[in-house]
Structures are given as C-alpha cells and as structure tokens.
Amino acid sequence: MTANLVGAYSTDILSKFDTLVSDIFADFNDPIRTYQYEAYYADRDTVMRIGIRLAGLVCLHEGSTITEIGTDSGFGALTLALFSKNCEVYSCDIREESIIEAKKRANRLDINNVHFVHGDVDALAAALPSRATFAHVDAHHTKEACLRDLEGIYPYLFGRATLVVDDVDEANGVRSAVDEFLQNHPELIHVPTYYNFWVLRNGLEAKRR
Q1: Domains delineated in the chain
Q2: Within 13 Å, how many C-alpha atoms sit on residue 88's CB side?
Q3: N or C: which end of the chain has fewer CB within 10 A?
C-alpha cells in the first residue's frame, strides 16, 4: 500500500494517510458531496499515488512554513501536514464549502498542524506567520489565474524554497502560466520529478547548498 513510505514514518501517520485516502475516495462516490472534487478522486490508487508523491516532495522540509493554493477536498494540505514533520501548513481556497469540508476532515483525523484560509493568494499571504520554504499551487487552471497565484506566492518564499505546480502536463493554461512565470524569473529552474508535478527552485540558491 504505502511501501515507499514504510520505515520513514510512524504507523500512526501511515494509518491516518490510509484513512485520508479512503475518506476522499468515499466522498467522491457520494453524489451529494462530489461537486467540489477533481475527477482523479474516482480512482483510489491514483489518490494514493498523488499523496505519496506529495509526501516525497515535502519530506525534507522540517520545521518550516508550507503553503498551498487550492484546498479543494483538503487532500493535498492534509497530506503535506501529515508528512512534513514540525511544519505548519497554510492552505487557501476561494470556495467556502471547500474550507468547511477540509476543516471537518482535519478534525476527524486529528491533524492539528494545518490552517485553512478562505480567500485567494493575497488572503493566504496575509495569514502566513513567516516566509515559506514550500508551496503547492493547484487552484484554477486558466493561465491568468495560475500566473496570478504563482506571482502572488513567490515573494513569500525563501530563496531556497521548493515551488510545486500541479497539473502542468495536463492543463494547457497551467503550462502556459508556468512558461511565462519562468521567463519572468530566470533564476528559477525546472527540476524534473514526477509526471504532472513541476518542481521549480532557485538555481543560484541551489548551488550554494
């Protein structure tokens, strides 16, 4: 099930992750509660795989502030909160119903290091206690909206931060936004990782590590 994570994390964390995946999958198949969720939640294995990828990307960011734009079901933020030790996760969404459901899910799983913000990237930035070392961008997929999110969160990241953009390989608007964002910030480089996840880092800062 979570073979890639066993040994690195406690059984409590792995159990909560498995429950989270099951919870998301069950909600997708509830016709009353599916209006806000992405289509990939229909496949439990896909949900599990996405979560493991996020866990792998965030696991090195201990004792820091993590951000997410696009709460949706809360799956991304809660996965980040579970697998980022000693971190505080801040996630925003413009849809109040997403925030309400994500808070309920966090309470059910007793995940306390996650904070949900109702609003856009500006509201998220205002809620941050410090600059972040990790950002996950997965909100609206038009070029204009995605570019605004990227430009909006970038000033609130440390120089060595990791910026993960979701759905780049499947959403043309997101890919166009990322291409323009990279043109606007030549200091950033694309670090190949997983399909549909683009990791952007400051190339100059990376050399200083």
Answers
A1: 54-207 (3.40.50.150)
A2: 10
A3: C
